[in-house]
């Protein structure tokens, strides 16, 4: 089954073709960073207009790279939520129209399910097992991005239990806001992580929020306040900026690792899967690999290019649901706010 995936939930247009017999055939992502940098953040109306401009050219480009035409497609998957309603409608409208014209099924995919399953797509053993009709071994998923920070217990595809989530800012959002208050340009999160590499460990010390009490929820807003106070009281030199960035990054990484360890203990699972934009952070990857090794567990990450929003994760998640016989009606449906625990379970069948 060859599935076209379309991702337009926010400020990246992603398109991919996934083949259940051979894996990812081709994918492309167009980022709107330069457009929104003028405003210091994502402008929803401009995001929608740019998706209109880029979605069809990216579909043509991706199909050409895969050596396919639209008539070779067996299904179309698109992000139906959560996300910006206008941006979601662009991708959903294109996907639904294309599927109708080709007389193939279409499926709306939960954006965070796409992130959650992305590491399995890059693991040939897990991927082949899924398409052979076998559920993955249960695992804990850390979904950590600019819009979400969640710990999810995964008992099977479509069988998700929310274990903990952020009570305020997501980790990626905290990175971006912290970078902004220290004068780094939009989007500041990746730049903050880069300059943190030059920072001295221990030069500044920030708290590890909500780790001194039981539970698996997160809170990162207080860290921003600590950074702001430290930055204002400092000489604001470049070396100091790097030291503060390092201390902030260490605090976030330690907090995420502590909660991941608790989640593994609470569930008894021996597998941790990490995805979302912050999942590309090198210090977080190293910390969680060390944590898993010490606990006799395994940890999986998608390649960095598939950590941020992309069409490949939508094509893969959609393929699993289409393969199980799920599909949408002819309407164009999106759900800007969507609880992942409401998703129907998937009874896997062989491809």
Describe what you observe in this structure.
This protein is an alpha/beta fold and 351 residues long. The chain folds into two domains: 2-122 and 305-342, 2-Layer Sandwich (Nucleotidyltransferase, domain 5), CATH 3.30.420; 139-301, 2-Layer Sandwich (Nucleotidyltransferase, domain 5). It is 44% helix and 18% strand. The protein contains eleven helices and ten strands. It has a five-stranded mixed beta sheet with strand order 3-2-1-4-5, with helices on both faces. α3 links the parallel β4 and β5. The radius of gyration is 20 Å and the shape is globular. The N and C termini lie close together (7 Å). Keywords: Acyltransferase, Cytoplasm, Iron, Metal-binding, Transferase, tRNA processing. Belongs to the KAE1 / TsaD family. This is tRNA N6-adenosine threonylcarbamoyltransferase.
Task: Summarize the topology.
Blueprint: E1 2-7, E2 12-19, E3 23-31, H1 33-37, H2 44-66, E4 75-81, H3 85-102, E5 106-110, H4 111-121, H5 124-131, E6 139-144, E7 149-156, E8 159-165, H6 171-181, H7 188-196, H8 221-232, H9 238-267, E9 271-275, H10 282-295, E10 298-300, H11 311-323
Parallel strand pairs: 1-4, 4-5, 6-9, 9-10
Antiparallel strand pairs: 1-2, 2-3, 6-7, 7-8
Helix pairs in contact: 2-3, 4-11, 6-7, 6-8, 7-9, 8-9, 9-10
Protein name: tRNA N6-adenosine threonylcarbamoyltransferase
Main location: cytoplasm
Domain Gcp-like: 26-316
Q: What is the CATH C level class of the largest domain, in words?
A: Alpha Beta
Proper CATH architecture of the largest domain: 2-Layer Sandwich
* Helical coverage, percent range: 40-55%
Secondary structural class: alpha/beta
What is the name of the CATH superfamily of the largest domain?
ATPase, nucleotide binding domain
Coarse morphology: globular
* Sheet with most strands: strand arrangement: 3-2-1-4-5
Largest sheet, in brief, is: 5 strands, mixed
Number of E-type strands = 10
Overall tally of structural domains? 2
Domain Gcp-like: 26-316
Binding site for substrate: 143-147, 176, 189, 281
Binding site for Fe cation: 111, 115, 309
Catalytic activity: L-threonylcarbamoyladenylate + adenosine(37) in tRNA = N(6)-L-threonylcarbamoyladenosine(37) in tRNA + AMP + H(+)
């Amino acid at each position: 089954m060859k599935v076209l995936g379309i991702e337009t939930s926010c400020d990246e247009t992603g398109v991919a073709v996934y083949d259940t017999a051979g894996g990812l055939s081709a994918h492309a992502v167009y980022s709107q960073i330069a457009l929104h940098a003028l405003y210091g953040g994502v402008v929803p109306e401009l995001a929608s207009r740019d998706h209109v401009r880029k979605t069809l050219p990216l579909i043509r480009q991706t199909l050409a790279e895969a050596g396919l035409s639209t008539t070779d497609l067996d299904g179309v998957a698109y992000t139906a939520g959560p996300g910006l309603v206008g941006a979601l409608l662009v991708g959903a409208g294109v996907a639904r129209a294309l599927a109708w014209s080709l007389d193939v099924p279409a499926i709306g995919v939960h954006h965070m399910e796409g992130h959650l399953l992305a590491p399995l797509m890059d693991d040939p053993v897990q991927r082949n097992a899924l398409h052979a009709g076998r559920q993955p071994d249960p695992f804990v998923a850390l979904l950590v991005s600019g819009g979400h920070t969640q710990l999810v217990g995964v008992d099977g595809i479509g069988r998700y239990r929310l274990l903990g989530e952020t009570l305020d800012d997501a980790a990626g959002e905290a990175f971006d806001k912290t970078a902004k208050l220290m004068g780094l340009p939009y989007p500041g999160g990746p730049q903050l992580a880069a300059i943190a590499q030059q920072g001295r460990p221990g030069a500044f010390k920030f708290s590890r929020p909500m780790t001194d009490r039981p539970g698996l929820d997160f809170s990162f807003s207080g860290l921003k306040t600590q950074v702001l106070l430290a930055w204002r009281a400092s000489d604001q030199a470049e070396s100091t900026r790097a030291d503060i960035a390092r201390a902030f990054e260490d605090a976030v990484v330690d907090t995420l690792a502590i909660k991941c360890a608790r989640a593994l203990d609470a569930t008894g699972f021996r597998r941790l899967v990490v995805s979302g934009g912050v999942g590309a952070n090198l210090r977080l990857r190293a910390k969680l690999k060390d944590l898993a090794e010490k606990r006799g567990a395994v940890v999986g990450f998608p390649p960095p290019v598939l950590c941020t929003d992309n069409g490949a994760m939508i094509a893969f998640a959609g393929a699993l649901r289409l393969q199980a016989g799920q599909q949408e009606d002819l309407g164009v449906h999106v759900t800007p706010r969507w609880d992942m625990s409401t998703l129907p379970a998937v009874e896997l069948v062989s491809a």
